[in-house]
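Hey,

The postdoc asked me to send both predictions to you directly instead of through the lab channel. I've kept everything plain text so nothing gets mangled by the mail client. Protein one:
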Amino acid sequence: MNFHDNNLEKNVIDAYGRLLLDRMESEDHSYFLTFQFRPCRGSQKVRMETMLAGIDAFYRTLVRQCVRHPGSKQGRELLPVLIAFPDWPVPKEKKKSLAEASINDGLHYHGLIVIRHRCRLEVSLETHMRDHKDWYIGGEKPLFNVHVKSVEELARELTNYLFKQVGRKRFSSDDVLVLPKVWSELHSSNRK
């Protein structure tokens, strides 16, 4: 899909916003994520593919903590919903270090994840990540940091923020990752 048509762009952003709002207006828990990566080799496309694979691995690990049997009908209803967006640094009051801003030319991902309140995760995602960061980051994994922040009341502003690079025509909707995938894709991919 290409975002050259502003009406199409607005409709897609509104649809993602409705999806997130529907989940967030329930008793589910919503979090804003910033995914930062180790240096990735290759073209921008190759780096983005590496980053998406890292986010997918993060999600698969988290799913195992949230749902006992993710392939069952009940398990699929409890899967977290994650939407991740590529982002570039922009000038801010609080500056990042030069080294941090220059890794992968500053390319990183932001995301919004909605965790079902009935899932097995008995603590907030912030607490879970603090207590089990090594499950997600380190070793040969491409992720070097995942910043988690609760965002229960910021859905509309956050959706617009996450789509800012799409709106600026730096990326298209083809670069947006929406999980879960169809269960057969999730189940058949590399399991680590």
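Protein two:
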Amino acid sequence: MFKRLFIIGILLAVASWVQAQNDKDSVLVTPQTVTTVAKTDHNPTKSLLLSIIPGGGQIYNGQAWKIPIIYAALGTVGYFAYNYYSDMRMFRKEYLAIGQSGICTLPGYEGISGYYVYNYYQSNNKNFQLFTIITVAVYGLNLLDAYVFGHLYDFNVNDDLTMRIAPSVAPDFGSRMGFAPSVNLSLTF
């Protein structure tokens, strides 16, 4: 059994050595393949400051397609925050009026007790606070998006990304055989 594993290991080692001899040197640079990338004067802090007005930093970063998403998100959570705020004020005003007269006069809520009006007030107050926090979080994501993509503005993204997986043999000094089969992973970018 040991002899078979040893022979298989030697064959894998020789195969990987032969393949390594056939591979082209990836460090070889010819004058035709050298490309220079001009560093732009793109400032991430400027994109952050411009995004104080939602979408300004995205325009500066060249990502204007994000502006409708930002305004849709801010408009949606802003609408719900405003709706809950106006209902909260209405129920608070009615609860204070019930305390003086004892009668609920809100249209659609006639005849309910002050306990229920107070519960409606508390529910709308809680939802208003929640949507206010969510609005601040969405606005913060706008700022964070502009700042992060301001840093990644000069990041080179091209189609020259490759990955090659090949079997290989690695030294293993803790075993009796002295080697172990392994997988070689090569990334080129």
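Summary for protein two, as requested: Strands lie at 162-171, 179-188.

Thanks,
C.
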